[in-house]
Amino acid sequence: METIRCKFRCEELKQYDSRVPRRREDGTYETVRRILYSVILCPIYSDKEGSENKRFWDAQPTGRFELGMVKESSFEIGRDYYIDIAPCPE
User: Which of 8, 16, 40, 47 is the right S-S partner for 12, CB 3.0 to 4.6 Å?
Assistant: First the structure.
């Protein structure tokens, strides 16, 4: 399989509270609050013939990519991003 390049637009950035277990020195666990982040990207669209966005839309017309992170991201709402998909070496 060759690398597949997708083009997505950042549609939403989310921040939310979570609770995660943390081990204490004595071996017991406590639940601590942690801020988590998420970015949602959707396929771009264009009907302008010959444009890069039209070529990508014709090849990948549906989908959604959501990435959860523990650090705040540098994604920007409304900005386009490439996502390359390639098989991992065995």
Answer: 40
